[in-house]
Amino acid sequence: MQFHLNGFQTGDPKRYEPASTLANSDQLPEEVDVLIVGSGPAGLLLAAQLSTFPEIVTRVVEKAEGALEVGRADGIACRTVEMFEAFGLAERLTTEAYWINETHFWGPAPGDKSRITRLGRVQDVRDGLSEFPHVIVNQARLLDFLLEYMHNSPSRLQVDYSHETLKVEVPEGADERVAVTLNTPKGKKTVRARYVVGCDGAHSVVRESIGRVAQGHGEDKAWGVMDVLAVTDFPDIRFKCTIQSAEAGNILLIPREGGYMVRLYVDMGNIAPDAWLTKEQVLKKAQAVLAPYTFDVKEIAWFSVYRVGHRVTDKFDDVDDDQMDNRTPRVFIAGDACHTHTAKAGQGMNVSMQDTFNLGWKLMSVLQGRSPASLLHTYNAERHVIAENLIEMDTSWSRAIGAAQGSDDPQGAMKGLAEVQRQFVTNSEFTAGFATHYAPDLLTGDDTHLGLATGFPPGRRFHSAEVIRLGDAKKVHLGHVHRADGRWRLYAFADMDDPRNPGSRFNQLMDFLASKASPIRCFTPQGADPDAIFDVHGIIQQSHLEVDWTDMHDVLKPHKGALGLQDYQKAHAPVLGTDQDIFDLRGIDRGAGALVVVRPDQYVALVLPLDAHDELAAYFDRFMLNAQ
Predict the structure, then answer these.
(1) Integer Cα distance of 376 and 319 in angstroms
(2) DSSP for residue 588
(3) What per-residue string of b and e applies to 273-312 under the rule 16 or more CB within 10 Å gives b?
(4) What sign has the CA pseudo-torsion 562, 371, 367, 569?
C-alpha cells in the first residue's frame, strides 16, 4: 500500500485523517446525498465505497438495535475476496476464514442403503481461476471488517441503528429530493436524499414504496440451519459435503472458521406455512442423515429455519421502462430486495455485494459531476440479468439435489448423485463468482479486438496475474493495484518494440495520454492529481533486469500530492523464466501489444490496440463530462 503522499503520517496507515469538514456528523441530518437503508452485506459494501468520499454526504439507517453478532450467510466466493482486496481487506478475510479446498459427495452405500459412503470428491476451485480461495466467514465478521473500514475512512461513517424506514416518497420534480420517513428513538423523522438505496432484505420497504414487485414462486420446503460444536466419527467433518441418505433426507455440511465448528443445512421437507421447527427436530433429522456415524452436539451457537423461494424483482430502480428517456433513477434496491433463492449454491451474500459494488462507483461519478445522471440506468440494465441467471442456476442445482434424494431406485439414485457432482463441476465458475459477463452496451465494449488480449474479455472481471514492479523489483499481482476508489485503470501491455524507443506504439500511447486530446486531460479536474480519475499502468515484455524504471515514460512516473512526490509503482515487467508470464497467461499479442481498460468495479470495459487513440477517447466521451 502507499501512504505519506501528503506528508508523514504516524499510526495505522489504513486509518485516514478525518476530513477537515466531516459531512457525516454524529446527528442524522435532514438532507443527505445518499441514504442507504439496511446494514447487511449489500448496504455496508456500498457504504464502505462511499465513505472514501467525505464530500458526499452518506448515511446508513438500520432498524435493528445494533450490529449483527452471529449467524446468517457464511460463504465467500473467490470473486468476493478479489473485491475485498480492493478495500485492502482480503488478507484479514482469508487469514481468519476456513478455506474450502475440496467438496465431497456422500450417498447411500451400494448394496446397503442403510449406510452412507463417500461417492466422490472434487477440487473446489480449479487451478488458475483466481489467486484467492473460496472461504467461509461468519457474516457478522465480514460486516465487522466493512464497519471498521468505514470508521477509518476520511468520513468516519457509522450506522444509525434503531432507525426503521417506514416509507419512501419520490417527488415529481427532478430537482426535488426523495423523502424517507423514519421511526427513530426520538420519534418520527423525515430525511431528504438525492439518492436512496434499499438494501433492506426480502421484505423491503423501499421496494414496496416504489411499486416494485418480487416475481416468482415461494417454497413450502423448509431448511434448518445450525452452527454447532460437536464430537463425531464422521470422517469428512472438516470438508464441505453434500450428504444424501436413502431415507432420511439430505444435508449440506460446511466447516466453519476456527477449526472446530460446522454448519449444517438440513432439508426438513415440505411443512405447513404456519409451522415452526425446533432445534431438537432439526438436529434429530441431521443425525438420521449421518447415521450410522455419531454426531454428539455439545453446543449450538446459532439456529434458524427458513423458507426461501426463487424470486426476482421486476426492476431494480424507480424508473419505468417507458420513462427512461425523461427520468433518471433516484431510488435503487439491491441484494435480497432484488433476488431471493436457496442457500445451496452459497451465492446470496456474494451477488448482493456485487450489486452495490456495481452501483457505488456510478453514484459517486454522478455526485462528483464526472458523469450525467443517465449513467445510473446501467445499474438495472447490468444487474437484473445477473439476478435472472442466478435464479436459473440455483433452480437447476436445487432440482438436481432433490432428484437424487427422491429416487427409490438404487441405480436411479446413483445417477442422481452423479448429476449432482456433474452440476457442481459445471457450475464451478458461477459459484466462484466469475460467471458475470456484462453484454456490450454503454460501458462495455465488444470483442472486436479481443484477439489482442484473449484473457481479458470485455464484460468479465479483470483476471489478475503476477508481475514484477520495475521501481523496486517486488513481485505483485497486477490486479491488486485496483482500489475501491472510483478510478478507472488503463493497463498498457507493450508491443514488441523496445519500450525505450520513442517510436514504439507503447510510447506513442503514453504521448497521447499526456496530450490535450487525452481522456486524462479532458476528464481530470484542474488541480487534481494526474491519476485522480485514470490510473495508468505499463507492462513491458522485457525482464526487470534489462530495463530501468527511469527509462519509462513520464505518464508512468507522475508527480502528485501536496508535496509533488513521484509515484514509483506504475511500471511493471513479467515474471520470466516460469509459466507465470502475464503475456502468455492472458493471451497478450506480443507483436502488437494491447490496451485493457478496466472499470472502477474491476470489470474489463474494452480491449483496444495501443494506437486506437480516437477509439479510446470516443469511449469515455459516451458517459463522462468534460472537467475542463
Answers:
(1) 11
(2) B
(3) eeeebeeeebbebbbebbeebebebeeeebbebebbbbbb
(4) negative
Give the H or E element holding residue 354.
helix 348-367
pLDDT at 322 over 80: yes
Residue whose grid cell is 513520464: 554
At residue 132 the predicted structure's pLDDT band, cuts being 50, 70 and 90, is very high
Residue 598 has pLDDT above 80, yes or no: yes
Local confidence band at 407 (pLDDT 50, 70, 90 cut-offs):
low
Find out whether 515 and 530 touch, Cβ atoms under 8 Å.
no
DSSP 121-167: EEESS-TTS-SS--EE--HHHHHHHHHHHHHHSTT---EE-S-EEEE
Q: Is 395 helix (H, G, I), strand (E, B) or coil?
A: helix
**Res 391: pLDDT:** 80
Helix intervals (H) in 368-446: 377-406, 410-426, 428-431
Q: In the prediction, which pLDDT does 300 show?
A: 96
pLDDT in tens, 230-278: 999 999 999 999 998 988 988 999 999 999 999 999 988 878 777 889 9
Q: What is the rounded average pLDDT for all residues in the chain?
A: 92
Residue 614 phi, psi (nearest 5): -65, -40
Q: In what order do the strands lie in the sheet with 135-136?
A: 75-76, 135-136, 98-99
C-alpha cell of 282? 432439526
Q: What share of the chain is helix, strand, coil (3-state, %, to 5)?
A: 30, 25, 45
- Residue 331 pairs in a beta bridge with 196
Amino acid identity, position 273: P
- Check: CB of residue 464 under 8 Å from CB of residue 580: no
Instruction: State how far the Cα of 521 lies from the Cα of 511, in Å rounded to an integer.
Output: 12
- Cβ 285 vs Cβ 248: under 8 Å: yes
32: enclosing H helix or E strand: strand 31-37
Is 361 buried (19+), middle (13-18) or exposed (0-12) by CB count in 10 A?
buried
% of the chain exceeding 90 in pLDDT: 76
Helix (H, G, I), strand (E, B), or coil: what is residue 615?
helix
Q: What's the grid cell of residue 349?
A: 451474500
What letter represents residue 25's amino acid?
S
CA 136 – CA 199 distance, rounded (Å): 22
332's grid cell: 435503487
Radius of gyration of the chain (CA): 26
User: By the 8 A CB rule, do 103 and 242 touch?
Assistant: yes
For 326-371, the pLDDT digits (tens) are: 999 999 999 999 988 766 666 778 999 999 999 999 999 999 999 9
Q: Is the dihedral of CA 274, 280, 281, 283 positive or negative?
A: positive
Phi, psi at residue 620, to the nearest 5°?
Answer: -70, -25
C-alpha cell recorded at residue 599: 472499470
